[in-house]
Design brief:
Elements (H helix, E strand, L loop, with lengths): L2 E6 L4 H15 L5 E6 L5 H5 L3 E9 L2 E2 L1 H14 L7 E8 L4 H14 L2 E2 L4 E4 L4 H16 L2
Parallel strand pairs: 1-2, 1-3, 3-5, 5-6, 5-7
Antiparallel strand pairs: 3-4
Length: 146
């Protein structure tokens, strides 16, 4: 069964709602095992065991969270060759801007040579019903690509 690794930093109620919607979206796809790992505890073994990855982070002062950056720092060299072509998606939540966070994630995933299989999801402010549905769709799209 394909395994989707969801690496997330979820420090707020808004991001918790987003994570729950992501979990629901993966559940819509038969025969995909979701593995949710906080970014500070996810590591190379998790990534190497995954068939795809969904990244989730708040936008902090124009950048991804330090927790997600720590994940990338931890897995970059051990996984560089083995994960080339890995399908991935990303969601970023910010109070008013997510562009810098998305750019930084794009640079790192590009260097890792991962394959983006869904448009990045940028959320600002309190997530409403349409935002949560977009999270479900993103997760399902990434899961289907496995």
């Amino acid at each position: 069964m394909p395994r989707l690794l969801v690496v997330h930093h979820t420090p707020s109620p808004a991001l918790q709602a987003v994570l729950e919607a992501v979990r629901e979206g993966v559940a819509l796809v038969d025969d995909v095992e979701p593995v949710l790992r906080p970014a500070l505890s996810a590591g190379a073994a998790d990534l190497l065991a995954a068939d795809g990855v969904l990244l989730g982070t708040p936008a902090n002062i124009g950048y991804m969270s330090g927790a997600l950056k720590h994940f990338f720092d931890t897995v970059y060299y051990p996984c560089l060759e083995a994960t080339a072509g890995l399908p991935f998606g990303v969601y970023v939540h910010g109070n008013d801007d997510t562009a810098g966070a998305l750019r930084s994630i794009e640079r790192i995933t590009g260097a890792l040579r991962w394959k983006q299989v869904a448009a990045p999801l940028s959320l600002t402010g309190a997530p409403g019903p349409a935002d949560l549905e977009a999270c479900r769709e993103l997760a399902a799209t990434v899961a289907v690509s496995l």
